[in-house]
Amino acid sequence: MKPNKYKQSHSTEREFGGALGATCIPVFLPLTVLYLLSVCRSPAASVLQWPPPLTPAAQLWDPLAVVLVAGWITLQSFLYLLPVGKVSEGLVLRDGSRLKYPINGFHSLCITVALLLLCLGLGMPLGYLFELVLPLAVCAIALSYLLSMYLYIRSFWAPKYALSLGGNTGNPLYDFFMGRELNPRIGDFDLKYFCELRPGLLGWVVINLGMLMKEVELRGSPSLAMLLVNGFQLLYVTDALWNEEAVLTTMDIVHDGFGFMLAFGDLAWVPLTYGLQAMFLVVHPQPLSTLGAAGIILLNGIGYYIFRRSNSQKNQFRRDPTHKSVTHLETIATATGKRLLVSGWWGFVRHPNYLGDLLMALAWSLPCGMSHILPYFYVIYFTILLIHREARDEKQCRAKYGLAWDTYCKRVPYRIIPYIY
Ligand code: NDP
């Protein structure tokens, strides 16, 4: 028998400010990327500067950027298709089937790093990425628009059960933004899963390395602050790819359709704004004492520990609740048959993984000193994102688990930060 949800074809709820939000965000966010990159490279790097130090239109275009983006997507697609690593199944879909996904992101990272080292060995001027970053942003934005248009059009040929519940309201702008189809694929190639962790996350690491090489060109060696930013963010990306399988149970894969929101986020927003700190350091070098660096490394370590342990605990519990590492934890039953953890990390706050992520975000900005707000963009934006994401997740959990969720909230009253939020 098909589950009930199979009959449900759409949700009437509107997120991200509804049609108005879905119309404004695709214009506003790409402009924000170009603005942030322009300000970051300016001598003052001040978000209060008026008129803003916008880059002249002629400098936004470079055919080399098109070649690099096309080559990059081709390389990552080829690595995605390599028959290495295991194949995992996603969660059960509304038609009762399960899709198969290659778990070879970490292999892609290793091969990409090896290729980068080879390029450096051959004398490729990776520091030139600093000059090219705005044209690269323009290409990445254009690519996310083209991809979202393709996704929107092809979704009209998808069977009803393959559509997402949230992106099928009939309002073209809203549906274009939220994404109509849940798991668009070309043959076995899953477009959403590919974009989620490959071109953007790895692109972020490469751009960071480019900034480090630019610093070497300008000042002879990388600064301590630059090494920390590069090291922390490389750890984050490596962790995401090492634990790639966990992405199969995230909201993005399970719940959200593939539209402009995810395409732009994955292909343009992540690689170009998450590494602003490294770009900032190229133009605005910051002294960092050994003691300061030790404190920041400790903060990143604590954040990473909380982030990794809490994510792993929940993933393990969801995959196999009888595993010895989770059997000692207290749980409560829900009407769906699934149980909720109320002790361990998930008894500390309702989203311990977000807390760890935020501590790391702060550690990534601190090496840039306190003189500018711009390198703190990521931690500010990320706090807003995670508060919003937490509210979306709570809503979905309340709808899924009803009274059991309310009991959980009473047992664990704080959402992200104990005694504060
Ligand atoms: P989460 O990993 O937080 O998963 C939320 C789900 O976990 C809920 O929907 C529920 O699903 C389950 N759950 C919640 N509470 C409990 C409980 N007490 N016991 C058992 N299961 C529970 O989802 P996200 O995808 O938001 O986050 C994953 C990671 O990715 C986080 O570390 C986050 O910080 C990070 N992230 C990073 C981003 C970035 O840009 N850097 C962006 C977004 C996320 P169910 O019950 O159905 O299993």
From TrEMBL:
Pfam families: ERG4_ERG24
Top-level taxon of origin: Eukaryota
GO cellular component annotations of the record: endoplasmic reticulum membrane; nuclear inner membrane
Entry's Gene Ontology molecular function annotations: Delta14-sterol reductase activity
Keywords (A to Z) from UniProt: Cholesterol biosynthesis, Cholesterol metabolism, Endoplasmic reticulum, Lipid biosynthesis, Lipid metabolism, Membrane, Oxidoreductase, Steroid biosynthesis, Steroid metabolism, Sterol biosynthesis, Sterol metabolism, Transmembrane, Transmembrane helix
Compartment annotation: Endomembrane system; Endoplasmic reticulum membrane; Microsome membrane
This protein's pathway: Steroid biosynthesis; cholesterol biosynthesis
Catalytically driven reaction(s): 5alpha-cholest-8,14-dien-3beta-ol + NADPH + H(+) = 5alpha-cholest-8-en-3beta-ol + NADP(+); 4,4-dimethyl-5alpha-cholesta-8,24-dien-3beta-ol + NADP(+) = 4,4-dimethyl-5alpha-cholesta-8,14,24-trien-3beta-ol + NADPH + H(+); 4,4-dimethyl-8,14-cholestadien-3beta-ol + NADPH + H(+) = 4,4-dimethyl-5alpha-cholest-8-en-3beta-ol + NADP(+)
Main localization category: membrane
InterPro entries membership: ERG24_DHCR-like, Sterol_reductase_CS
GO terms, biological process: cholesterol biosynthetic process
Keyword flag Membrane: yes
TM spans (from-to): 20-44, 64-82, 103-126, 132-153, 258-276, 288-307, 361-387
Annotated EC: 1.3.1.70
Membrane topology value: Multi-pass membrane protein
The keyword Aminoacyl-tRNA synthetase is assigned to this record: no
Family matches, as PROSITE patterns: STEROL_REDUCT_1, STEROL_REDUCT_2
Biological role stated in the UniProt entry: Catalyzes the reduction of the C14-unsaturated bond of lanosterol, as part of the metabolic pathway leading to cholesterol biosynthesis.
Family membership noted in the UniProt record: Belongs to the ERG4/ERG24 family.
Name used for this protein in its record: Delta(14)-sterol reductase TM7SF2
Organism: Triplophysa rosa
